[in-house]
Specification:
2 domains, 8 helices, 10 strands, 5-stranded mixed beta sheet, 15% strand, single chain, 3-stranded antiparallel beta sheet
């Protein structure tokens, strides 16, 4: 039997119950006052499914209040389907595909996917690396930044006009990626210092912006790609380049185009799936659902306080 045949992917009551189990493992919690004692379910023919009332602040709420699902008219079971599909697709799933699969409008599918990416954004779980650990650092280029005008007529060549993505990958651990405006040392070094433990051994390529990392970290080694070198024993950047291969196949083959103002969410999506790679698709989807709490996203693409 397919996992997509489970009741919470087709029945609204079962879907709400599933969401409550994930977001309220210890029982209902009021999103308005955080109370969890005097809470009771409202029932009746005219009452919405999953409606609760708080005895502390006297306000009504559902499990979707204060999450990325709030104020959505899309059925909860379709939300759960969308979350599962995005978590199970290694290179992502396009809004057009969600539109056809879920039978919602393209605009709705696009907005759903961005809300789910917002849920996937990590809140930070400490620094990468540490004593005895290795973190690989590299950057890649994607899309076209129309705010940057390339020199001459060679519009498609070089990388100055492309979006720049910096990724930090701990070997055997997690990845942290971000969109950066430039690749100057004065921009990148503060980022590395804020994300990586100072007792870490850093691996990069021979790019000049990384030439003095040994001043801020335990050790720094690099490979000389311009000389055809791709590794010397433990000195390589193959892990971060492997992550980039999945990221770029997804961005070019599935999503094809992304404006800079949205790129950070696509980056978060690929980071999330990489960081949750050791669990099954269903567990990964539940982790994404847990990340939905405390986040909102407007149609203009800006996150707001829940």
């Amino acid at each position: 039997m397919s996992i997509l045949s489970k009741p919470f992917f087709h029945d609204e009551a079962a879907a709400i119950e599933k969401l409550e189990q994930v977001l309220w493992p210890a029982g209902p919690v009021c999103p308005h006052c955080s109370g969890n004692q005097k809470i009771y379910a409202l029932k009746g023919k005219a009452t919405r499914l999953g409606l609760w009332k708080c005895g502390h602040c006297r306000k009504q709420f559902t499990v979707k209040v204060g999450t990325v699902f709030e104020s959505s008219h899309v059925p909860t079971y379709k939300w759960l389907q969308a979350v599962y599909l995005m978590c199970a697709s290694k290179k992502g799933i396009s809004s057009n595909q969600l539109h056809r699969t879920l039978e919602v409008t393209l605009k709705t599918a696009w907005f759903m996917s961005h809300r789910i990416r917002e849920a996937m954004k990590g809140g930070g779980n400490g620094l990468l690396g540490g004593l005895g650990k290795i973190v690989e650092v590299d950057e890649t280029f994607i899309g076209h930044d129309y705010a940057v005008k390339p020199k001459g007529d060679k519009r498609g060549r070089g990388f100055a006009h492309k979006h720049k993505v910096l990724s930090l990958v701990e070997r055997g651990g997690k990845v942290v990626s971000m969109v950066v405006d430039n690749l100057k040392a004065k921009t990148l070094i503060p980022i590395l210092k804020s994300q990586i433990d100072s007792q870490t051994r850093i691996m990069t390529d021979e790019a000049g912006q990384y030439s003095r990392l040994d001043l801020d970290f335990l050790a720094h080694d690099f490979v000389r790609h311009n000389q055809g070198e791709y590794g010397r024993g433990a000195i390589y950047t193959n892990t971060v380049e492997g992550f980039f291969s999945i990221f770029k196949r997804g961005m070019k083959g599935v999503y094809q185009h992304c404006a800079k103002r949205h790129l950070h969410r696509y980056v978060a999506e690929f980071d999330f799936r990489y960081n949750e790679r050791r669990v099954c698709d269903e567990e990964r989807a539940e982790t994404a659902l847990m990340g939905a709490a405390g986040k909102r996203l407007t149609y203009r693409g800006s996150p707001i306080a829940a």
